Amino acid sequence: MINTLSQKWSLDAIFSNGSDSEELHSFLVTLEEKITSLTGKIEGENGPQSDNEIPNWLPLLNKVQTVSAELFEVNEFVECLQAQDVTDEKANTLSNRVYAVNAMFDTLNTYFDQQLQTIPETTWKLLLKQEEVKAIAFPLQEKRENAKEKLPVEQEALINDLSINGYHAWDNLYNATLGKLKIPFETEGEIKKLSPGQAYHLLVSTNERNERKALAEGFKTALKEVSEVSAAALNNIGGFRLQVYKHRGWSTESILKEPLQINRLTDNTLDTMWNVINQNKPVLLSYLKRKAELLGLEKLSWYDISASVGESTKKYTYEEAAEMIVANFSTFGSELAETARKAFEESWIDCEDRDTKAPGGFAARFPLTKESRVFMNFHGSPESIATLAHELGHVFHQGIISKSVPPFSQTYAMAVGETASTFAENIVADANIKNARDKREKLSLLDTKIQPAITYFMGIQSRFEFEKKFYEERKKKSLSTEELTELMLEAEKYAFNDSLESYNEYGWISTRHFYMTDKPFYNFPYTFGFLFSQGIYAMAKKEGHSFEEKYIELLKDTGRMSAETLALKHLGIDLTKPDFWTSAIDGIRADIKEFLAITE
């Protein structure tokens, strides 16, 4: 049995004393010195020019790897500090400092990548065959090829330097603005001011439509108040990115060039995935139509999609949820179950509902301590348990990566990063449905399981379409708040086949991912990861316990090959063909078919 558990995480194993950490301060000072020293050694210098120079160059390679892992540790820690308390001004100050260190490392990385280009081809081939390099051969080759498409090193360094108070500053402004946003909501004759996270949880969990509608209106009112500053941030982030692309000579390339490179995907794979999803829209629409009928509506509005149907009134304690997750994970494999148990017992999870917490959820990876941390709010519902299982899937993946491969091969693309999380969520969802007490509870659990498909196939698609259109228009001019709102509305109508009564047209403000400066198009990878995982999960159900070993080997390789190569090597499938994607959707089709049958 799992005993009483803390619902607040402990970060002291990483750096003690939070945002007042002297340990972190010293670590940052040393890290800055290391980056400065390495930059001085690499700037303007060639890589090994002959085979006999390789041994003397390898220590430099290892130092760059080590620094990258140290910076990753700091980035994740500061993100945790900001998330656990949005009022922590010291954490915000730390974030600004870490942004500067990241810019320093970006410059170092630029010089290093340029140095890789100077290595003669024959020496390069021998380098990749070195025993200590084999495990990072793919990311090294990737860095060398990507560097060829960038500007001369001095210009890339200048871009990194200017981005601190320009590009990244707009991201910081957006975060600060949204972090202080309050959503008005009237309850029991009193107007309460909710954080976006609290308001969104209430919106997706309440069974009262008038409350959902009021919260949606509250969101709209609050978001409109920050629309001008949000539009300025989005236009300037987009404009900066496009100018960089222009100077790199990418103006005639697809706007998806960089995000596809980052996610190690081809456009053929992405197009095939979206085409298969679009072909399966009718079954999704049949679910939405039936759900509207069950809620007594002619059509759903955007805020009705997550409304519960059926009945699952049982609330679970955190300890019960932990027991359930560990037990269900053990039906798949012992290593997954043990990872979850450790996370619960060693206080890796912050799930307490506090009004000073940032909205959303994530799993943070710490490559030096080889631990993870989970951030979310736990409310005792099946949905909360699903979210918890999802994040623990990330933790499992992170643990395998941190313990098995060198730092350069630990950086896996987001497209495959959602695989383990969705896989873990499916294990728990199916177990809950199987053990449902009656028809109404089964209906509720089925509905909960189907909803992510609506999110990833339609909700995420609307964001993908918005971002594509935004960059097309941003090449011509800055967009007004009205134009951005209209773009969002058009994208949502397209993704949902114009099937909703009303839409979240201010989603361009509330969608954090549009403003992230490190990753453009932080949307389609979610859909890829979800559907890729569905296909893998179907295979796992057929093979049983023996699949865990194959699964772990697949996860180990996520940072050192493309998605297409990963799928071919470990699963024997071609992602550019529709067959796998169609089979991956079969499970969702089956769930919707059962949902429709129960509600006939």
UniProtKB/TrEMBL annotation:
Name a single GO biological process: proteolysis
Keyword Lipid biosynthesis set for record = no
- What name does UniProt use for this protein? M3 family oligoendopeptidase
Keywords, comma-separated and alphabetical = Hydrolase, Metal-binding, Metalloprotease, Protease, Zinc
Key word Metal-binding present: yes
MF term (GO), any: metalloendopeptidase activity
According to the record, how does the cofactor bind?
Answer: Binds 1 zinc ion.
Domain (Peptidase M3A/M3B catalytic): residue spans on this chain: 204-585
Cofactor names:
Zn(2+)
Q: Which InterPro entries is this protein grouped with?
A: M3B_PepF_2, OligopepF_N_dom, OligoPept_F_C, Pept_M3A_M3B_dom, Pept_M3B_clade3, Peptidase_M32_Taq
Record family assignment? Belongs to the peptidase M3 family.
Domain (Oligopeptidase F N-terminal) ranges: 116-182
